[in-house]
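ugh ok fine here u go
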Amino acid sequence: MRSSTRYCVFCGTTPLTLEHNPPQWINEFCSDLDHGGTTTFFTDRSRTHPRGASHTVAATAGRVVCGRCNNGWMSNLENAVKPVLGPMTQGHGTRLTKERQGVLAEWLIKSSLVHAAVTSWQNTTRFGAAFARFHELRDAILPWFVFVAAHGGKETEYTRQYFASYLEGSSKEQRQFPAYAYAIVIGHFVGAVTYSGDVTFPVPPPPLERIAPARAVFIWPRGRYMTLQDIEVLGTGPSAEEFAGLLR
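structure:
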């Protein structure tokens, strides 16, 4: 019988502390946002959902990390990303140097893993290699790709998170190379993370700009603003057929 004991998803120790994702300091910049309520969607991509896998739309919090990680390297990462991400959530133009791209990408990867664990503890096993790799290296490196864009216009500003996993397909390749797509919108900021064991994943379309692997300096926002419909499509991930085709 499998043990029901939970442990830190990064270092494997206990006791666990409460981790908010997105963090509470976001309220300093976006205190009047609609935080998406607790609406959750679970769909079987092989039968009922035409685009992809299970996804969740909600702000999340859960006991998934230990105090040492939460108050140590994770806290340092929050302090580093705050002066970059905070103004972006308000729509202020930001010069994204390679250093800033790196910090923002690391934060988005960390957020994707925390969200995965909070929404389903089984993800800690399914993506065990991802948790271990990030904890060991704490860097935005392959097989992760990270992208950013801006949400704007007259639509209501809000925070939402999406997680689409590709794990239980009928093909041998899908079982061998688990993959996920994560998207988060906080006010005017949109971030997306893709992870795949074989470094193959459909590239999200413009106006998303890649920040990991890092690229040349650019000014955010760049290109058109994403609409709610754009973000919903991004959040559900590519279709199972599209993803399976790339793995063949």
